[in-house]
Amino acid sequence: MSAQSRPGPTNSVVDVAGIRVGHCTRDEPGWLTGVTVVVAPPGGAVAGVDVRGGGPGTRETDLLDPRNLVDRVDAIVLGGGSAPGLGAADGVVEGLFDDGRGWPTREPGQVVPIVPAAILFDLGRGGTWRHHPRANDGRAAYDAAVPSVAQGCVGAGTGARVGGLKGGVGTASVVLPSGVTVGAIVALNAIGSAVDPATGRPYAAGLGLEGEFSHVGVASPEELAEAVRRAESLPDRMAGLPAMATTIGVIATDATLTKAQCQKLAGVGHDGFARAIKPVHTPFDGDTLFAMATGAHDPVEAVDLMLLMEAGADCVSRAIVHALLAATSVDRSGDGGLAIRCWSEAFPSALA
Q: Which of these, 250, 13, 34, 18, lies nearest to 141 by C-alpha position?
């Protein structure tokens, strides 16, 4: 990334003008799940998607194929709850209906809201297996959408786990020398780890801008040894008991892109997953990235498009680091759920 690149004012996906984000967090007793909705500006945004994980759960992704007709989305839903959690998108659709937003069909006002979605696996982590987001949770997330982003154990990241540590929602942005803004939001919930076992540092901490992660150092040998001991003792490391996971997210930009270019942006964005999570795109992860382009800036030339895509991948990596750092520990073992330590509790000596 160019040395002239800098984070946006909030270092989040809402630095792309017109983008709003809403969370619905279900963390009451028996629950540990939620929904995050990324709402496009009025008129929608051109979008694409790239699915790399072996166990995806998605909705309306075929519609984003560049060969197909509809070229704009009104919102994108990221949710917990595995396959049943896809129903949360229905609530977002209802909210868009009420606001008169969607793909025009026949008479004025007869619109169809376009809401692709992807889900991650967090069933049972709060203690009750069938507690998953529903349409009312999606509607609550849509109604809560604002031009700011809470991070950590909120929305789709409420029940997230990465390796043996607590996952969550993270976001990051960059303003390129051309003036184009790129941002990403990620719900981090991976089979793999986001932490270098030799140092305790997040794998992608070196991609930070302007001292973004300068406060993150190397953990003590004692903390590293304890982390390894705990990871090896996790019951779901046993054969036949995969943890089930999936990391999902959205890259947004104010550049003018085609559907095909958005699809490519989402594909290159997966490089950001690979820089920050190891292993990634496993059979037990449904890793999915969407890309949205609002079109506020003119179309970009080929070289600038390459730089934009690289920046999108780096934003994804940086968002993953922010998700890891913002997460807090949870203990639902008393309800039959999981106890999951966060990064800062596992490696306190690494924080300057």
A: 34
3-class secondary-structure state, position 186: strand
pLDDT confidence of residue 242: 56
The alpha helices in the chain, defined as continuous H runs, are: 88-98, 135-143, 221-232, 259-276, 302-326, 343-346
- Both tokens of 297, joined, read 């800036």
- Per-residue pLDDT of 297-346, as tens digits, reads 988 899 999 999 999 999 999 999 999 999 999 999 999 999 999 999 99
> Token pair for residue 73?
């989305």
Per the CB < 8 A criterion, the answer to whether 79 and 122 are in contact is no
CB 325 within 8 A of CB 82: no
Query: Residue 254 burial by CB count (10 A; 0-12/13-18/19+): exposed, middle or buried?
Result: buried
Residue pointed to by tokens 């984003």: 64
* 16 Cα distance to chain centroid: 16
pLDDT tens-place string over residues 151-188: 999 999 999 999 999 999 999 999 999 999 999 999 99
Residue 293, φ and ψ in degrees, nearest 5: -125, 120
Contact (CB, 8 A) for 234 and 276:
no
For 313, the token pair is 């991948």
Single-letter amino acid code for the residue at 73: V
Q: Which amino acid is at 313?
A: A
DSSP state of 205: G
How crowded is residue 264: how many other Cβ atoms within 10 Å of its Cβ? 20
On the question of a cis peptide bond just before residue 279, with omega within 30 degrees of 0, the verdict is yes
Inter-helix orientation angle 135-143/88-98, to 10°: 50
pLDDT in tens, 133-143: 999 999 999 99
- Distance set, CA 122 to CA 127, 249, 300 (Å): 10, 16, 39
